[in-house]
Structure formats: structure tokens, C-alpha cells
User: What shape does this take?
Amino acid sequence: MKHATFLRFFLPTATAMLLFIALPIVSVLIQSVHAPHDRVVVEVENCTPFGCTKSTVIDQAATERLREEKPQGRFVGLDIYRDRSHLAFSEIGEAWNQATGAGDFFARLMNLPFYRALVFTLTYMVFVTPLSILLGFVVALAVNAIPRLFRGPVIFFSLLPMIVTPLIGALILFWMVDSRGIIGAAVQWLANDPNLSLKASTTLTWIMLIVYGTWSTAPFAFVVYYAGLQTVPQDSLESAMLDGATRWHRIRYIVLPHLMPLTVFMFLIKIMDNFRVFEPIVSFNAAAHAQSLSYFIYSDLGGETRLLSSAAATSVLTIAGVLVLLSPVLVRTWRQFGKA
Amino acid sequence: MTAVAQKRPVTLSLILSGFLILWLVIAIFPFAWTLWGSFKVEGDFFSKASWQNALFGPLTRLEHGSAFTGAGYYGAWVQEEFWRAALNSLVVVVCVVVVSLTFGTLGGYALSRSTYRYAFWLLLLALVFRAMPPLTLVSGYLLPFYQWNLWGHLPTAIIALVAINQPFTLWMLTAFFRNIPKDLDESARVDGCTPFQAFRYVIIPVMWPGVITTGLFSFLLAYNDFVVTSMLLSKQNQTMIPKIASFLGTTQTEGNVMFAVSSVVSVTAPLFLLVMFFQRQIVSGLTAGAVKG
Assistant: This one.
């Protein structure tokens, strides 16, 4: 295909992505080095027969004009990245010098909002990704073992947790784990503690979010593995049997290697998806105990005072995080195709 | 096929079936429970006394004379005007699907037929864009959109969703177009078609299976979106998902959490139908990228 033809076919999608993905990233970068204008203060002298006093008042008109002229604010360089809500270098240095041990240092770290959000996001990603893939794999094995007749309906029901809107799936679970809901009541009965509330404890909230994450993403792993199991070479399995391979050997040396590329693919997709965890925190009303990076941006953007600069700085740091996560893939592709 | 290699010992089969039943309960039960509970009053669905109240509904019987009541649905759809949000959702979803498929098929076709290296790099760039959390992009939208008075309108949200959806659409459709033999459009070119005519008369008639599969995922993205629609739309133009989130903020105090429960059921119902009718396409779409690598 010629360059000109390619361009004509590709122009609409390129424009959309340029305007609404590439430019916003630039806009976020610019916004993150600007802070809102201070109010313009003027000194006025009030003279009365008894003498003059000086006082400062806010010049509303000038402030407004300044905001109109430069809506993104004044340039502050990397100050926003360094402040307490983001990378907080000085606070970390302080914590490092004063901390009595690793645990104490970590506790101090968790008082800083950005690091708290980062730690939760990474924890969520590290637990949910392997757990959901493992659960999906076992379900795929189980579905593969039942008669063909039942597979359709089973796949239908298994897809539901993934297809349903994340916000809504999380809400449904949230209502059930409410202390007046059925799971909440069951947990109270199991723990023999009628006042136990899953929402009140940070650890339990994190576990709840991870359980939700596993529940809602396992179907994807299941479907991919199920499709992969259909293509396992049957003659290899049979010849391995003739050679005396046990069931375990066949799984270990034929099935698992066959599924390996799928597993790598799913890890990549799921790590990207879990890194942006957001909706369940809204649904579970869990912001007091668990904030993800995305939620941190959301809470800065929402509310009466929109902290655009703070949100922009967090966004830039999040994008940097995504690039770090993607870097193995990018480097590998570069090696494979970049030089060829 | 009942190959020898497929045979399993009885204990293993039992364990697997037991596990499968457990999984199905975990997957289905929350939906069934919420559907059943949406026809009760709040005192029954969230019962302090006994969880069985949600099953039999003694308070619902007391208040409405029957164990089932549509009060939650009436409150949400009529009183709180959920129908308005449903209409907005319909507009957003239809537009997003149509526009992103139009852009996506053109771009995906071009990428699949280009033999130059930049096609590869564009796909890689799309992968990076696909990994961006939408909220980072939304925080870049807000200031310019305020400045240019674009904030709050449906078309803004639609085009933003289309753009966010493009990387994924491009990936799927490129993979799909690569499976359509090049000979088809090349022979059309030999017969004197322009590139657009070749696309129009040769490719479009055979592309529908892939387009439908991709369209389903565009539909899901637009229908399920909370980030973009909640940040970019004014209250009047809200779609269903942000509307439900706003129920939680306002109605919890009024004791009308049942509005949220019933609207959650209303939003989930179309998704059930979607999976029921398009199960095969959804499964093939999910596995397309994976199995081909």
C-alpha cells in the first residue's frame, strides 16, 4: 500500500488518537509544572484624620484577569512533584533518618498519600494477576472435563462476572458483604463476632478488593485457557502415554508448555488492567482504607476545588509507571523487530 | 472424541466437577441474589435481624401486601428519572460503536495491508496508548474542555470514548484483516478499482464477522464506562453508570438505596442478553489476540 493511500485510510483514527490521547498527555505534562495563581494582593493605605494605616486586600479583578490570561497557572517547575502529596523527597529523607526500623519507615511512608496509593495499586496488581490466572486455569480444566452438552451454559454463566460493568459488579458484592447483607452476616457468624464489619478494617478492605478483582477477572483467563486447551496436540499426548508418561508428566511436559505463550500474554494484559484499578474503590466506598493511583487522580479532579495540577503530576507519575511496566515488552520487541 | 488420553480417574473427575459447581455458585449467586432482592424493601434486603428476610420479605409484605414490590424500580425510573440516563446511554453507546468501527476498520485495514515498518511501530504505539489509565487522559482533558466550552456535552464524551477505544479496536481489526487474503483486494486493483473501491466492494462484504466481534467490545467499553462519562458529562447529560454512582451519594441518606439496587439490575439485564446472544463472538474475540500471539 502506498504512503498516500495509507495516510488517507489511517487519518481518522490517527486524528482521534492524536487529539484525545497524545495531546492530553502533553497537556498533563504541561499542567504538572504549573500551579494555580496566587491571589493578586495590593497594599492600600487608609488615611483617616488620625493617621494612615496600611492594609493588604485581594484585587479580585486583577486575579480574575490573570486567571483568564494564563489558565494553566504559573510555572513552578518540578515543585508539585516534590511536594508532600507526590514524591515527597524531604518527608522521605526525614522518615529515613528518624525511623527506628524498616517497619517504622514503612508506616511513615504509608502516611504519604502518593506512596499509599502506589503501594495499594502494586499490592492489588501483584495479588490479583496471578490469582485470577490460576483460578481461570483450574476452571478451564474443570470445564474441559465435562460433557460437551453442558459446556455452553457453563461458559455463559462463567463470563458474567467479567462482562458486567466493573462499578456494578463491585456494588453487588459490596451490598452482600455489608454487615446487614448475606456474606457479611455469614462472616459475622463464622467469626462469632456480631459487630464485625468488613468495611471498618484496612486489611479486610484490601482483601475484599482483591477478592473482587480475582472474581471479576478470572473469566478472562478461563476463556483464554479453555481455547488453548482445545488446541493441545492430541497425538503428542497419546504418544507420551505410550511411552509411559503419567498424567502429571503429560500436564507438566506437554500441556503447560503449550499454554505458556498464552500465560505470558495474559500476564501482560492483566498487569496493564490491574494497574489502573479504580471502580471497585468507588463502589466499595473504600477510599479511607485503600486508594489506587487512579483513585488519587479522581479525588483530586472531583469535588469543589479541582486540583488540576496535583492530578496532572500524579497522572505523569502513573504514566511513567505504565511505561516501566511495559518496558520488558517494548525492549523485547525492539530487539526482535527494531534492528531487522 | 473419547481418546484414551482424555480418560480421567474417578476421584479427579469428582474433584473437578465439585470445583466447577463451586465456581458456578460464586459466579452466579451474587446476580441472582441482587435480582431477587431488588423486589424487596430496604429493611428486608439489608436486614439486621436475619438474612432470611431477604428471601421471604416480611417487611415487604407488611408495607406492600405482597412479598414482591416494584417500588424500587418505580422510584428509580420514574421518580429519579433514570429513563433520561438510559436514553443518554443509548445515544452514547450507539454513536461510540458506529464511529469507532468506522475509524477502526479504515485504520485497521490500512495497517494490515501496509508492508512498511511504520505500520508495526504504529501498532506498538497503540499498545502503549492502550495501557494508559483513562483517568490520566481525563485529567488532561478537563482544562482545555472548560476553556473551549466543550465540557458537559454528549458529543465530547462520545469522541473521547472513541479515541480511548481506538487502540484496542485497531489491534483486533488489524489481526482480523490479516486473515482476509490479500489476493482479494489485489485482484480488484488489477481489474482497475481504486484503493477505496477495492475496500468498498471487496473487503466490506466479507468483513462483518470481525466487525461484529469488535463492535461488541466497543459496546461493552462505552456501556460500562464510568471514568469518562462521570468526569466529562454534566448532570443533565449523565449516562446510567454515573447516575447509579450519584444515587449512592444522595439516596443513602434518604434510605432509598433500593433505587440503586433496582437500577443496577436494570443495567445488568441488557448485558445478560448480550452474552446470551453473542457468547460465541465474545469468546472468539477474547481469544483472538491470545491464541494468535
Summary: Chain A is about 70% helix and 5% strand.
